[in-house]
Fold each of these.
Amino acid sequence: MAKLKVEDLKRIKESMKGTVNLRQGDYRVKVIVHMGTCGIAAGARTIMNTFLDKVKESGATDIILTSSGCAGLCNHEPMITLEVKGSAPVKYVKLDPEKAGRIFDEHVVGGNPVADYALSVGSETTY
């Protein structure tokens, strides 16, 4: 087995930069796909793949795409929570690839929430 050189490691790091940035790091927008059992059964994997494709197509490096478990709203799956820095999070529900694409284009890229698919704006706070 050949030994890796510093140049090889730098090339690997650059090729993986976009993938790592999908889950952590500095971001402008965070897309959280709810992938509990109910979400997956309702099609959350398709929604995740739609957002993955859209992020890759856009070439954006300031978008984090991640997943979470059940949000407790099984009858509204598949759903996402979209967080834009400086704005209240928006929970989008009953998604399909077409709706996810519109949310990406209008909210993630354009900065305009899509009221047609939003269940709530803001977070619940427990005191």
Note: The mean pLDDT is 85.
Amino acid sequence: MSLYSVNPPHGAEEERKPPPQGDAAPQSAYSRIMLVLSAQAFDFALIAGTGLALYQAHVIKQIGSQPIYLLLALGVALISVIAFNMLQSYRVPAMRRPISQLFRMSGAWAVIFAALIAVVFFARLDYVISRFWLVSWFLIGFNALAISRFGLAAVVDRLAASGRFQKRVVVVGGGELARDLIRDLAKGDPAEVRLLGVFDDRGVARSPVMVEGFAKLGNVDDLVEYARQTRVDLAVFALPITAEQRILQMLRKLWVLPIDVRLAAHANRIRFRPRSYSYLGATPMLDVFDKPLGDRDVLVKMALDKAIGVLALVALSPILALTALAIRLDSKGPILFKQKRYGFNNELVEIYKFRSMYADQLDASASRLVTRDDPRVTRVGRFIRKTSIDELPQLFNVVFKGDLSLVGPRPHAIHAKAANRKYDEVVDGYFARHRVKPGITGWAQIHGWRGETDTQEKIQARVDHDLYYIENWSLWLDLYILAVTPASLLKTQNAY
């Protein structure tokens, strides 16, 4: 079998109390988008660099400096990358088959140079453009591409062999449909898919503990815990499309996870248009819902965080320095305060804040909310909490640790309560806000929902705004929130 199996559970499924444990230290995924962008950037640099190197070595010596060569080098490089992309040469499976791709790329390369020669001829640039340069660039450039493609294939093969491109998949549902689905997935490339196990809400009498050599790891509640302990990329429902009620019940539990959910369509009698399907290997799937941020979105958001985060640290450094001095002069104790909070996918992250309380009254677990005229808060602390200056050290989390974003749901402390109940007990689906990285500011904050959350209504409103942000995320929404945040800090009625 080409998929990796897991150990069967000990005893009947009903007897198991703790949730299933994730596999030990799974390899972190390597972003396919990052690989594609890197390959495209390398090809662009290689093609343009080859043309410019030949220009430097031959043309300048013969006829002197000619700026048109720079334009041609950059233009051909850009057109080549676009053409190779249209030929799907930057897909991961294609990168692993360099010989077949080079046949395609050679055709595109020849057409591009034929068009270049035609442009040179009809624009009467033949007295400026060296024929030796064109021929040399055509031959040397393609050979350089060929060598780089074999090198890229070796790198991608090594990453694939280590599981860096695998989609880590769980099957939801059992019986014949799950068996057929697993058999279909087993025909695919093991470097593309890793099946972790099966989850089913039905008991042993209706759903066996082993399906095609893969263990039944528990029910859907167990899957939620499992996905927080190990990386799960995709949950595939092996259920008939007519089992609407059962699917909806399971989706209500799974929507809090940052994973993709698909419905296996290989056994459904209802047929849709081809464009309605996505594919896992050769197995057709119907998309149920996607994780909030795709790979490309994650890269865009990360780039925004790093770029603006660094600029903010530089611009705000005087305020950071003055605040640190004021805290030191106002009361004894450390300048910074570290606190554990829930982060992406319910993982614990340690965030930095300026200390705003007396050192002997710090509340690391936030078990008691700060209220108006709270005696634990220092004089400087009242000011920096009102103005949210105490949050500025979280820029270090954004820039250096990467466990916070500039914009996102605020990371709530692990023991924070509203009306003496933990937030997840007060709000149904509370953990769905952890499907993205938490942020320093967010949609809830700019609408006034910051500071004390002592009632169910306040935390419900904050969570509703957080979920709206997650479901409607865009780069422009992040930029808007960042632009509006300074003005929103003037609303201090809930910040103590």
Note: The longest strand covers residues 193-199.
